[in-house]
Design goal:
Layout lengths: L5 H58 L1 E3 L13 E3 L3
Antiparallel strand pairs: 1-2
């Protein structure tokens, strides 16, 4: 049969207090991590929306251009499109 001394109780109390503080710190860290993950998800969604908008804008811009015939201009080969006549 073991006997619990005041020193044992004090050690146990100190250990439990330390454990509680560690758990509180871990809980704060997990909350901060969750906030960071939420922020990252929102940023990723905004980035995706911006990418879609840019793609749609480029597509509309491309649709508004029509090919220029090779003999119709003295522009360089990279200038193969001109604004469409509206």
């Amino acid at each position: 049969m073991s006997h619990t001394t005041d020193a044992d109780r004090e050690t146990l109390g100190t250990t439990l207090s330390s454990l509680s503080k560690s758990a509180d710190g871990l809980s704060r860290s997990v909350r901060q991590l969750n906030r960071a993950v939420d922020d990252l998800q929102l940023s990723t969604e905004r980035w995706g929306e911006n990418q879609r908008a840019a793609s749609e804008s480029l597509s509309r811009a491309a649709d508004s251009l029509e090919p220029v015939s090779a003999g119709a201009t003295s522009a360089s080969a990279s200038d193969s499109f001109a604004p469409a006549d509206d």
